[in-house]
TrEMBL record:
The lineage of its organism: Bacteria, Pseudomonadati, Thermodesulfobacteriota, Desulfovibrionia, Desulfovibrionales. Residues 1-11 have a biased composition (Polar residues). One of its GO terms (cellular component) is plasma membrane. Keywords: Phosphoprotein. NCBIfam families: GGDEF (TIGR00254). Residues 424-556 form the GGDEF domain. Residues 1-22 are annotated as: Disordered. This is diguanylate cyclase. The modification 4-aspartylphosphate is found at D191, D317. Residues 13-22 have a biased composition (Basic and acidic residues). GO terms for molecular function: diguanylate cyclase activity.
Length: 556
């Protein structure tokens, strides 16, 4: 959905008045925010707590930005120095040493004096602080767009909405800047005619009022493609630069890469340990990092669950009564699909002979069982990233990045088995682009590839998180809709995607065109096999083409 804010004429006088008003508002906030900071830090000094420490660091980063924006360089430097003192302790279980805490105390006193608030004076409170709570800025999943050409902005919004993005258009830079100060967007897209000073000011507002770990990317779009303009964008702190006319798929590529959102699939870790308490401690450490652990207390059941859970890594105890970790690793390695799966052992015995035996028998590493949870997560992180990258190369279609033909069929068989076991319903959608040969013949195969990538991105963005999408072959795609309530829900999901994709305009040379698709839908019922479901969905898809294309037909 696109929201547009009314344009107002911006005179130099009004611009200066708005800037002064904004700076006064920031200055008025400073003392209150310093009070909040001191309350949180005092609470931490009385009762050390990791969340309170992160909150203190967050308030310090916010004050660094606000004081810099109001021209108080000394105050900004003091807040930044205090934040830097605490930063090394944010991802550890350690507390700052006494001398570090005393230095932070001294910096806060100096900061209070700099802002005209002596340490002895009771700090003003903006709110009653819940322990560990820090939410200085509201956030939205919307993308803010500034473009002096409102028509071009609306066209861009229509294109991106087809990929599932929601845009808010601001023809007035001041309105955009004020909105950023109130609600941070997922990203900002700026038209390049913005002057250097205005662009730099806006990017400063975004960067300095959001936390380092949640900063907002700014993309510059320009009708010119020259080095000086690109250099200007780099110097102002822009995250990306694209030229007009913007290719929607290329812009979505950039947005997907820059926006780290919750949609990213978490790492899946299979924890195999007969010691329930130890397994739960390990799983808690993994969950705290945002990963998805699955505990298996019985190693003999691990192989069966692996097909369904599809772990990115196995973390298992070395010594278990019914089956040792080394034995289970050898069994897992007997299956070709698990040859590259990382297996890490946990053991209280870490001598060289044990380590060598573990490696020879299928393990990748051995870690202490009593390892600090933060250190455990760090030890696994790099290995997990490489594992997923390798799997993506093996399991994915090279053009679209979707699951390939072989693996979509394997996933369908696995999901069908699960739904039949649980009494749930699954729907399979087979999609085929309409008149795709004409696209290749008219605009060339390179343009045809871009259309395929565009459809792949649309499907990935518009489907639910649990759904699975793959390239079945050529211009044909398969979508597994898991746990649907019935035909109506499955039809609604796919029809929304069909309509959104049909609105996307693709470019071939200097011409624009749209592409549609036909879809066949089949729902699991009775004891249908994966192959029977594929055939039913395929027949329904061809029926949709016979009825006129650009429609969905449900198998009877």
């Amino acid at each position: 959905m696109t929201a547009q804010f009314p344009s107002q004429q911006v005179t130099p006088c009004r611009r200066e008045m708005e800037r002064e008003k904004r700076q006064k508002r920031y200055a008025a906030d400073l003392r209150g925010k310093l009070g909040e900071l001191r309350n949180v830090w005092d609470a931490y000094r009385e009762r050390p707590d990791a969340q309170l420490l992160r909150s203190t660091h967050g308030w310090l980063r916010l004050l660094t930005g606000l004081t810099a924006l109001t021209g108080r360089e000394n105050a900004a430097n003091l807040a930044l120095r205090a934040a830097d003192k605490l930063a090394p302790y944010l991802d550890t279980t350690l507390s700052p040493a006494a001398d570090i805490a005393q230095k932070v105390d001294a910096l806060l006193e100096e900061l209070a004096r700099e802002l005209g608030l002596p340490r002895s004076e009771p700090p003003p409170r903006l709110s009653e602080i819940a322990a560990g709570e820090f939410c200085p800025m509201a956030r939205t999943s919307d993308i803010y767009v500034y473009d002096s050409d409102s028509r071009a902005a609306k066209e861009l919004a229509g294109q991106l909405e087809g990929f599932g993005y929601s845009l808010r258009i601001f023809p007035d830079m001041l309105a955009l800047q004020d909105m950023v100060m109130e609600v941070l967007p997922a990203a900002v897209i700026l038209d390049s005619p913005v002057r250097e000073g205005r662009m730099h000011e806006l990017i400063c507002v975004i960067g300095e009022t959001s936390l380092v770990e949640s900063c907002v990317p700014v993309l510059v779009v320009s009708g010119r493609d020259d080095l000086l303009l690109r250099l200007l964008a780099v110097r102002c702190g822009a995250s990306a630069f694209l030229t007009k006319p913007v290719n929607p798929a290329a812009l979505v590529d950039k947005l997907d890469a820059l926006i780290a959102g919750p949609g990213r699939e978490p790492y899946r870790i299979l924890v195999v340990d007969d010691d329930q308490q130890a397994a739960e401690r390990t799983a808690q450490a993994l969950s705290n990092r945002g990963w998805q652990p699955l505990i298996m207390g019985n190693p003999l059941q691990a192989l069966e669950r692996m097909t369904e859970f599809r772990p990115d890594l196995i973390l298992m105890d070395l010594y278990m009564p019914e089956c040792s970790g080394m034995e289970l690793a050898e069994v897992i390695r007997q299956k070709d699909e698990h040859i590259g799966l990382p297996i890490v052992f946990l053991s209280s015995c870490g001598d060289m002979a044990t380590r060598m035996a573990a490696m020879i028998r299928g393990g990748d590493d051995i870690l202490p069982k009593d390892m600090d949870p933060i250190m455990l997560v760090r030890a696994l992180e790099g290995r997990l990233g490489r594992s997923r990258d390798m799997r993506r190369l093996m399991d994915r279609d090279s053009l679209t990045g979707l699951v390939n033909h072989t693996n979509i069929k394997l996933r369908l068989a696995s999901e069908l088995s699960r739904t039949q076991r649980q009494g749930a319903t699954l729907a399979l959608a087979m999609i085929d682009l309409d008149r795709f040969k004409n696209v290749n013949d008219t605009y060339g195969h390179l343009t045809g590839d871009l259309v395929l990538k565009s459809l792949a991105k649309t499907l990935k963005r518009r489907l639910r998180k649990a759904d699975i999408v793959g390239r079945y072959g050529g211009e044909e795609f398969a979508v597994i809709l898991v746990d649907v309530q019935g035909e109506r829900e499955a039809l609604a999901i796919m029809d929304s995607i069909r309509k959104g994709f049909a609105r996307i305009r693709h470019r071939g040379g200097d011409r624009e065109f749209c592409v549609t698709f036909s879809c066949g839908l089949a729902l699991s019922s009775g004891g249908h096999s994966a192959e029977e479901l594929c055939q039913a969905a395929d027949r329904a898809m061809y029926k949709a083409k016979e009825l006129g294309r650009n429609r969905i037909f449900v198998a009877g």
